[in-house]
């Protein structure tokens, strides 16, 4: 049995905007085991970033508020602890990388000084010691140590993102949360960054939550996958389970929407419609207005989390025998 | 063999800022056939958008020839160019930045009809509604403003605006890069439909190789202002010749559990186009570079039927 590193339970986050409630994350639960990478996949507005920020308790209040839930880590519920405790966890035991590499770097300090400062703050070492370590960390991400004396603007996007990773890993965190770390990068640079993340993860046995909208990236680095739609996890499973047997109609729709380099199709099969307005999430199954397989029940009843084989879980009425059987029965009288 | 609608020869664009010169496009030649989609791929800053704009004369070239339907449009005066503009349109990556926030959707699509005096005044409103329907926009949105629309709908407005003048050639500069995958597929299908219906010719610019392969008949790969390989789409993917193209294709994460080809991870970053490397511009990152690659610039040569490569080793 794998050891659980972090367990998120029934997490709900809301924002208030122009007097309206935005239900960004609704009752989601998942866990990450030691040394494993969980991929959180979803489209814009699905609630991925909000989930990441909530785990670190970095949701800005107002407009945001964590409504419910717990985040068990290291024997503590991070949602209940004092801010001083969280400050010690952030950047130390859990660190984060953002999509825009610029946001994690301060333009007025040299790259080397910024890494050294993180080390100096979190490990009780001298400043000279911290500087030396900063140099070796830069080398670890493939940047010559002497370039530590340069400023962020002198670095390319890929280098900045690697520095972000260097800073995030400077204190040997147990968990790394990476929010779309390669979305802004070119593919050849993305390949460099992904290789770096996988190598470091293996060497240091770091666990990772990788947030992305790219199923290709997921297939290369993740062990487990959670598919998010309108603030909910609609399907969860191992990489094998999700890729061999995508079960939720939304997951299937995602796979059919992307052109695949290895397969030639004349036309793509998009998901119809648009993401729902987060202030008016549809009743029942929130995917029902766009779902090609929706049944009468989908409009009124929220599907539960249904366990399939292994670790595979899906939240859809098609897999609920009572609904499917009930449907056959209600349909019968009308057939002549 | 179908006929070339657009042909550029030895096209060059150097931007000079202060004392520095950026060699954004540095001598490229290509042709696009009637009703064809030519894909243009390459990493950020390699000169794709500049190439697209040059073919429309939205920016002036430093040197080179641009032939559209057999006429060198580089020689055209303002008046003739304005007439030509009707035949050549553009769809942009960021549908928000390319729409005027103060104009309604209807006004935005109406504008090119007025500028080019297409149709009678009283019919134009109906033309706008027809165009909206064509691109899958509910005509009820006609009086809305761009900020009220999501990215996918905004991109449909951009497409309707380009279609309004009934062009022959459209430069599509990363038209789906800013969209979510489910919306991306909707827009790609729409672009395919209107291409068939109106017999359009596309220059399709993208950094997403899966998308480019899906839409293109032929594909040109750019690196630092040069074309390094050009071939029919399937040929380019299955009989890849240039080391850069090989690395680029292998770097794409394909969403499958099947065995993947070995990744060629290139070291370092793309060098600056202000000071491109000598000889073959790719030699600083090429795993196969030889001594002559540093000094001698390889020419784009035909190595197979309609397959062009610029590499000393091929
Ligand atoms: N108006 C300009 N003045 C100066 N330099 C420019 C100008 N426009 C483009 N460049 C430079 O020319 C080079 C090519 O730019 P271009 O926009 O064509 O690249 P691209 O391939 O479209 O990149 P991306 O994928 O990032 O859109 C870049 O180095 C860019 O900085
Ligand atoms: N600061 C904020 N104020 C108001 N609404 C927000 C804020 N941040 C996010 N949201 C909303 O919450 C929902 C989820 O957003 P987010 O977590 O950023 O999604 P993702 O990262 O999956 O794109 C969206 O509807 C978004 O508009
Ligand atoms: S619950 Fe119903 S609407 Fe929702 S995904 Fe399943 S079949 Fe479709
Ligand atoms: Mg996000
Ligand atoms: Mg561009």
UniProtKB/TrEMBL annotation, chain A:
Record domain ABC transporter: where: 6-255
One GO MF term: ATP binding
InterPro entries membership: AAA+_ATPase, ABC_Ni/Peptide_Import, ABC_transporter-like_ATP-bd, ABC_transporter-like_CS, Oligopep_ABC_C, P-loop_NTPase
Membrane-protein topology: Peripheral membrane protein
PROSITE patterns tied to this protein: ABC_TRANSPORTER_1, ABC_TRANSPORTER_2
Domain of life: Bacteria
Subcellular location(s) of the protein: Cell membrane
Keywords: ATP-binding, Cell inner membrane, Cell membrane, Membrane, Nucleotide-binding, Translocase, Transport
SUPFAM superfamilies for this protein: P-loop containing nucleoside triphosphate hydrolases
Family the entry assigns: Belongs to the ABC transporter superfamily.
NCBIfam families linked: oligo_HPY
Protein name from the UniProt record: Peptide/nickel transport system ATP-binding protein
UniProtKB/TrEMBL annotation, chain B:
Organism: Evansella vedderi
Family assignment from sequence similarity: Belongs to the ABC transporter superfamily.
MF annotations from Gene Ontology: ATP binding
Domain ABC transporter: 6-249
Protein name in the entry: Oligopeptide/dipeptide ABC transporter ATP-binding protein
Keyword check for Cell inner membrane: no
Keywords: ATP-binding, Nucleotide-binding, Transport
């Amino acid at each position: 049995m794998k050891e659980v590193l972090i367990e998120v339970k029934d997490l709900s986050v809301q924002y208030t905007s122009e007097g309206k409630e935005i239900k960004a994350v609704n009752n989601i639960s998942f866990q990450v085991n030691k040394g494993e990478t969980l991929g959180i996949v979803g489209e814009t507005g699905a609630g991925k970033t909000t989930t990441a920020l909530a785990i670190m308790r970095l949701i800005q209040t107002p407009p945001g508020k964590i409504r419910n839930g717990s985040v068990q880590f290291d024997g503590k519920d991070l949602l209940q602890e004092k801010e001083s405790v969280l400050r010690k966890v952030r950047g130390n035991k859990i660190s984060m990388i953002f999509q825009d590499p610029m946001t994690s770097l301060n333009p007025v300090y040299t790259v080397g000084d910024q890494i050294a400062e993180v080390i100096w703050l979190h490990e009780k070492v001298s400043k000279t010691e911290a500087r030396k370590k900063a140099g070796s960390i830069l080398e670890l991400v493939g940047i010559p140590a002497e370039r530590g004396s340069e400023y962020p603007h002198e670095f390319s996007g890929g280098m900045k993102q690697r520095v972000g990773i260097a800073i995030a890993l400077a204190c040997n965190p147990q968990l790394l949360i990476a929010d779309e770390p390669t979305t802004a990068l070119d593919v050849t640079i993305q390949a460099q960054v992904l290789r770096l993340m996988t190598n470091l993860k293996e060497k240091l046995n770091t666990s990772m939550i990788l947030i992305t909208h790219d199923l290709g990236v997921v297939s290369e680095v993740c062990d487990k996958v959670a598919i998010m739609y309108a603030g909910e996890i609609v399907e969860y499973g191992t990489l094998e389970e999700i890729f061999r047997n995508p079960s939720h109609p939304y997951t299937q729709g995602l796979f059919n929407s992307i052109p695949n380099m290895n397969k030639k199709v004349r036309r793509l099969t998009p998901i119809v419609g648009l993401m729902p307005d987060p202030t008016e999430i549809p009743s029942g199954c929130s995917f029902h207005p766009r779902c090609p397989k929706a049944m009468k029940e989908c409009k009124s009843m929220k599907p539960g989390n249904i366990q399939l084989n292994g670790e595979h879980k899906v939240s859809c009425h098609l897999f609920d025998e009572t609904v499917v059987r009930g449907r056959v029965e209600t349909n019968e009288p009308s057939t002549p | 063999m179908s006929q070339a609608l657009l042909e550029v020869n030895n096209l060059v664009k150097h931007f000079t800022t202060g004392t520095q010169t950026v060699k954004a496009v540095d001598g490229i030649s290509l042709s696009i056939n009637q009703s064809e989609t030519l894909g243009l791929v390459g990493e950020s800053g390699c000169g794709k958008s500049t190439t697209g704009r040059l073919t429309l004369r939205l920016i002036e070239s430093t040197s080179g020839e641009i032939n559209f339907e057999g006429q060198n449009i580089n020689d055209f005066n303002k008046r003739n160019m304005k007439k030509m503009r009707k035949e050549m349109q553009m769809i942009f990556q960021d549908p928000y930045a390319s729409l005027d926030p103060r104009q309604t959707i209807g006004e935005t699509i109406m504008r090119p009809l007025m500028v080019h005096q297409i149709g009678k005044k009283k019919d134009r409103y109906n033309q706008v509604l027809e165009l909206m329907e064509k691109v899958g926009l509910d005509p009820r949105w006609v009086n809305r403003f761009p900020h009220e629309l999501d990215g996918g709908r905004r991109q449909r407005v951009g497409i309707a605006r380009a279609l309004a003048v009934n062009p022959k050639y459209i430069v599509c500069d990363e038209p789906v890069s800013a969209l979510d995958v489910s919306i991306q597929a909707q827009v790609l299908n729409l672009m395919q439909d209107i291409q068939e219906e109106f017999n359009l010719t596309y220059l399709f610019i993208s950094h997403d190789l899966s998308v480019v392969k899906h839409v293109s008949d032929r594909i040109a790969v750019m690196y630092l202002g040069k074309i390094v390989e050009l071939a029919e789409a399937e040929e380019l993917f299955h009989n890849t010749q240039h080391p850069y193209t090989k690395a680029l294709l292998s770097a794409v994460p394909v969403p499958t559990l099947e065995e993947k080809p070995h990744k060629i991870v290139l070291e370092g970053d793309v060098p600056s186009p202000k000071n491109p490397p000598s000889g073959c511009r790719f030699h600083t990152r090429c795993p196969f570079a030889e001594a002559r690659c540093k000094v001698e610039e390889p020419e784009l040569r035909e190595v197979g039927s309609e397959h062009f490569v610029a590499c000393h080793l091929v």
